Amino acid sequence: MLLEGKNAVVYGGGGHVGGAIARAFAREGAKVHLAGRGLPRLEEVARQIRAAGGGVEVARLDALDEARVDEHADAVAAGSGSLDVSVNAISLGDVQGTPLAGMTLADFVRPIDTAVRSTFLTARAAARHMARQRSGVILTFGGGGGSPPVRDYSIGGFHVAVGAIDVLRRQLAAELGGHGVRVLTLHSGGLPETFDDAEIADGIRAGTMLGRAATLDDVGRVAAFAASDLARTMTGTSLNITCGAETD
């Protein structure tokens, strides 16, 4: 198992992406600590993990709540003996489909504020423990901040938000590398399973070189690899799982 004996915190663990990552981590032997605002969804993911024989704990918290994030990370490290992996997979609350010229400031700024604040707070909380351990992995989800702008469809502040996450990831990696901590981003280019609109889902697939897009299961598997020692030489970079929709 790739993550045997590891303790992993997944913020947004009740969502599509967070749940997929949490289940993959548990399959690879990690004890998963699900954190998020929606307790029923967290409990459902926890039920699935337990049914498969995995170890899991659930905590209700808002990743934008500084005191609660710090408190939870401290509790995980103290109660489980370490904090080895931290994943931020919370929803950014972005508004899409409205042209920037017609968007309110609040709608534009919301995903940027959420992305930067939650990534900073969750990464900082984990880094304090990981630096002392001289090991650990911090994962963010989004990437693509350096990719070309999207034509014919407005994604609001989302593109700016993932760009900010990219910058923060690189800076964290530079500062934490000397302490044995790795920082990576998973970049999917869009997951058809998470869209109710079939036209959008089909458009994501059509834009890839492989004629298919990453699945939630793909995201979980790559996240488990990134968090494991198999990826010990990787930090400061984005893992491109866009099926060729974007090239590096």
From TrEMBL:
EC number, as in UniProt: 1.1.1.-
Keyword line: Oxidoreductase
Please name the top-level EC class of this enzyme. oxidoreductase
Its name, as the record gives it, is SDR family NAD(P)-dependent oxidoreductase
Among the Pfam families in the record, one is: adh_short_C2
Membership in a protein family: Belongs to the short-chain dehydrogenases/reductases (SDR) family.
Per its UniProt record, what SUPFAM superfamilies does this chain match? NAD(P)-binding Rossmann-fold domains (SSF51735)
Looking up PANTHER family in the UniProt record yields: 5-KETO-D-GLUCONATE 5-REDUCTASE, ALCOHOL DEHYDROGENASE, PUTATIVE (AFU_ORTHOLOGUE AFUA_3G03445)-RELATED
CDD domains (alphabetical): SDR_c (cd05233)
| GO MF, any single term | oxidoreductase activity
